[in-house]
Specification:
about 350 residues, 14 helices, D-Maltodextrin-Binding Protein, domain 2, globular, disordered N terminus, three-stranded parallel sheet
Length: about 350
Amino acid sequence: MMWKGIAAAAAAMIAFAPVAAEAGRDLDQIKQRGTLRCGVQGPSNPGFGVPDSQGRWQGFNVEICRAIAITIFNDPTKVEFVPVTTQSRFPALSSGEVDVLSNNTTWTLTRDSAVNRFNFPAITFYDGQAIMVPRRLNVTSARQLNGATVCVQPGTTTELNIADFFRANNLRFTPVVIADLDEIRRAYDSGRCDVFTNDFAALAAQRTLLTRPADHVILPERLSKEPLAVTIRQGDEELTNIVAWTTFALIDAEEMGITQANVEQIAASATNPVIRRLLGVEGNMGESIGAARADYARTIIRTFGNYGEIFERHLGTNTPLGLERGMNNIWTRGGLLYAPPAR
């Protein structure tokens, strides 16, 4: 009977061994094309995605896309950035004009359902809707804004949330609905509306572009939960896995103290099996998700650093946005960032 026990153990090992992923429909097209088409908020979103003087895109969301390109191609340059607006982003994704959205899109029930058929593999940034007003109004709470005119973009969770907030608090407001982000900022800056509402981080970014940024304050209330995630079409589990585990690798690296400066040293000396698997030193987790190389995470960290390094470089306290980590810290430091086990 002993051979039966051996056979059962072998079968169990096979069942839990990494299995190479087969490319799905969308991943196949990306590989055949040789580039990942990434939709970013256009024409620019300071800190998250901005083209420099040479037209090369820079920012938090941009580096997430380049990290995904490393996982797929082992090459961060194989990305084509496509500026999209809040109204054009979902048609662009549905039609295949872009493969992924990395433009501060909120994960919601209806967007994730059969109605819209989008997937949100992993949250890359936790935010909440906020309100910005001129300091001269001497407003300290959003509940003091009865009768205000509010600049807001159409077709967004922002538009729905602001209506819910004013209704719940028995306040009146007049919406000034403008689709283009630059135009809505200019409208607010010129005094056409009393209030500019958007996600907190987006308001912090847009405030840097105002004529006198210091003359404007973001009020303390958060009107909503805004879990922002890279967005893809439903129907390709392989691409879902790649996007998810690219994000998780960045989070795990920060939790484990692996940085752009020390990743190679740690890869060469680590005895911890969790770290060795993450960096592709043992096992082949990369093959399981269809990555170009077993050490895809190591290449990403060597190129961009961990999640915290990317955050601080583009959004942190030493940047024009000046954002604290807050919810976007790893769970061991009081934040919400938490990656499933890579095993």
